[in-house]
Amino acid sequence: MTEMALHRLQSDIAAKVQASGTSFYSAMRLLPPERRNAMYAIYAFCREVDDIADDGGTLEAKRAGLQDWRAEIDRLYAGHPTKPVAQALAEPVKAYALRKQDFLALIDGMEMDAEQNIVAPDYATLDLYCDRVASAVGHLSVRAFGATEPEADEVAHHLGRALQLTNILRDIAEDAERGRLYLPKDLLEQHGIPCGTPSAVLAHPKLNKVCRDLASLALDHFSKARAAMDRCAKQPMRPAAIMGAVYRAILQRLVKADWKQLDVPVKLPKWQKLWLAFRYGFL
Which of 90, 168, 200, 224 could pair with 196 as two cysteines, CB 3.0-4.6 Å apart? Predict the structure, then answer.
């Protein structure tokens, strides 16, 4: 690929990332151009495989789409990617030692969603899911950020789980509409909630107790991620610090709302996002 074609591809991917409205955009913008383009390409890869799992049509079509990406990752690491997003990943893979196993782990996580709707998994399955769909992305991200300490992977491990659990607690109603329920059956049983359909679980009066317990687990992961960040160089960890601060603030709003009105979206006001980006990105 020529330098001009690569630049055009990177610009196209950057525009799509910005248009997606992701909460991570402001954190990515802090990075130097080369690392920023790496993160945009990683995010674009995540969107590609996530869209297959969620909107890829029949089960056979989803399996085929994800298998196609497995083959593409093989081609990427063999030095001849064919898909535009994989071509955008080629230089970051070499420059920042992005690990093949992390790309494949994310595809494994998408397969968990594609094969069947996840409903009340046990703790071990939920943790495996979070590891694949979130912490694996974290392992790619800390390398793109420029973090070199062993503790950087500890940040990825805990922050990935914290972010994914927050997503689960924020998107309970949306997931239920898809027939999914990521709340662990261990907690449901502990609070006397039958592991029935997602809609039945959401209607149970003790749902908020389950959510509070899962929120406590997420907060523990946030705290452990922050402690690991403090043992890393500050500059490369700034994007991770912003992501953690924004999502922790979202979780705190969820806890305050106490899952009483699941049809009311819980979001941060723009001023708070900007303040957190300034505080953790520049101070």
Answer: 200
180-199 core/surface letters (b: 16 or more CB in 10 A; e: else): bbbbbbebbeeeebeeeebe
Q: Are 208 and 243 within one domain?
A: yes
Name the β-bridge partners of 119: 181
Q: Are 107 and 73 in contact (CB under 8 A)?
A: yes
CA distance 85 to 42: 8
Task: Report yes or no on 109 lying in a domain.
Answer: no
Question: How many separate domains does the chain show?
Answer: 2
Structure tokens at 128: 């495996």
Tokens of 118: 């996840």
DSSP per-residue letters across 80-116: ---SHHHHHHHHHHHHTT--HHHHHHHHHHHHHHHHS
- pLDDT by residue for the chain (283 residues), tens digit each? 667 777 787 777 777 777 766 667 777 888 899 999 999 999 999 999 999 998 868 999 999 999 999 999 999 999 999 999 999 999 999 999 999 999 999 999 999 999 989 999 999 999 999 999 999 999 999 999 999 999 999 999 999 999 999 999 999 999 999 999 999 999 999 999 999 899 999 999 999 999 999 999 999 999 999 999 999 999 999 999 999 999 999 999 999 999 999 988 888 888 888 788 777 776 5
Residue 162 lies inside a defined structural domain of this protein: yes
Helix (H, G, I), strand (E, B) or coil at 196: coil
One domain for residues 167 and 272: yes
250 occurs within a structural domain = yes
Q: What is the extent of the structural domain holding 179? A: 117-283
Q: What is the pTM of this model?
A: 0.93
Asked if 149 contacts 231 with a C-beta cutoff of 8 angstroms, the reply is yes
